[in-house]
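Supplementary Note 2. Why include the ligand at all?

Several targets in our set were suspected to adopt different conformations when bound, so apo predictions alone were not considered sufficient. For every target with a known small-molecule partner we therefore ran a joint prediction. The input for zinc ion is given below.
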Amino acid sequence: MSDCIFCKIVRGEIPCRKVYEDDEFFAFHDINPVAPVHFMLIPKLHLASLQEVDASHTALLGNMLLLASRLAKEHGLGNGFRTVINTGKGGGQEVLHLHLHVIGGGHIPPMVRRD
Ligand code: AMP
Ligand code: ZN
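The joint prediction is reproduced in token form.
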């Protein structure tokens, strides 16, 4: 996708603080972190969101979770971490390229406030 900012990051057209790269995935620090560790893991394949996936993406999605767990550990989050995937307008997604937030370190507040 020529005008997708995350595709541009993968292609090196927009700078980023790279965390990891292989043939299938790319990870980079969030430009506006909400915790001491906050990076994004994305497939290099442009998929707009979890609303676009089907059974052909089963392995990709599984590998993405396995890699998230491994990268979290490598970034000092052995105590645990939060993963977030915002999906579509109803899920507050801002960048329309599927991405998994990996967040941890410091205080992680409850995700949903019940008051
Ligand atoms: P989401 O609401 O899940 O779509 O979140 C998009 C995330 O992308 C936000 O946390 C932004 O801070 C982050 N972001 C946007 N542009 C960049 C960029 N150029 N480099 C790194 N992170 C970015
Ligand atoms: Zn893209």
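Residues 5, 14, 16, 28, 30-32, 86, 92-95 surround adenosine monophosphate (ligand 1) (CB under 6 Å). Strands lie at 18-21, 25-29, 37-43, 82-84, 100-104. Comparable summaries for the other entries are listed in the accompanying table.
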